[in-house]
């Protein structure tokens, strides 16, 4: 699982490159953006993006699973259980996701 997690960083890099290509195309105007959309709809790029999405989801889940082992949180003389640290991470993810969704869809 460790090597798969490390390999998933390649797909994180792909999404960064893809985002930069998208920003570049948008800055160049409608024809460049439409060309990028057409390229993005090719089977190879769709496949790479789907594999990347799954890989990045795996990367995030394994990151959250490792957090309680890497973060020892103390409150007074007591150690916070790892399950609460993990729950806090997922609650933070849910909160940030809700704000992003609200900004994109509802604002």
Summarize the structure in words:
There is one protein chain. The protein is mainly alpha-helical and 107 residues long. The chain is 85% helix and 4% strand. The protein has helices at 2-28, 30-40, 43-70, 82-106; strands spanning 74-75, 78-79. α3 (43-70) runs antiparallel to α4. It is elongated, with a radius of gyration of 19 Å. The protein starts with a helix and ends with a helix. The model has no long low-confidence stretch (mean pLDDT 92).
Summarize the model shown.
With 107 residues, the protein is mainly α. It is built from 4 helices and 2 strands, in the order αααββα.
Number of helices: 4
Q: How much helical structure, as a percent, in the residues?
A: over 70%
- As a whole number of angstroms, the C-alpha radius of gyration is 19 Å
| Largest sheet strand order | 1-2
For the termini, the CA-CA separation is 40 Å
Which H/E pattern describes the elements? HHHEEH
Task: Please identify the structural class as seen in this structure.
Answer: mainly alpha
The residue ranges in which pLDDT falls below 50 over 5 or more consecutive positions are: none
Strand content: under 5%
- Mean pLDDT over the full residue set: 92
Q: Summarize the biggest pleated sheet.
A: 2 strands, antiparallel
The number of strands is: 2
Q: What's the structural blueprint in terms of helices and strands?
A:
Blueprint: H1 2-28, H2 30-40, H3 43-70, E1 74-75, E2 78-79, H4 82-106
Antiparallel strand pairs: 1-2
Helix pairs in contact: 1-2, 1-3, 3-4
